Amino acid sequence: EIDEIWKNREKTSSDASNRILWVLLKKLDWLEKLDNILLIGSTNLQDSLDSALLSRFSQQIEFRLPDEKEI
Hints:
Blueprint: H1 15-32, H2 51-54
């Protein structure tokens, strides 16, 4: 789950965590230039993710739990 690596910078005070996030964001920017690369991330804590990370995903798909009528 990507929320374990890419936490929101506003909620993380660690300089090391911020540096790791910055490096990973730069790597994502580099991957965007390549063809045939598909990056899939999953989380159940979308609010904890950094907005810079979310902006690098071209699509977001939400899978909701079924309600009682659908079961």
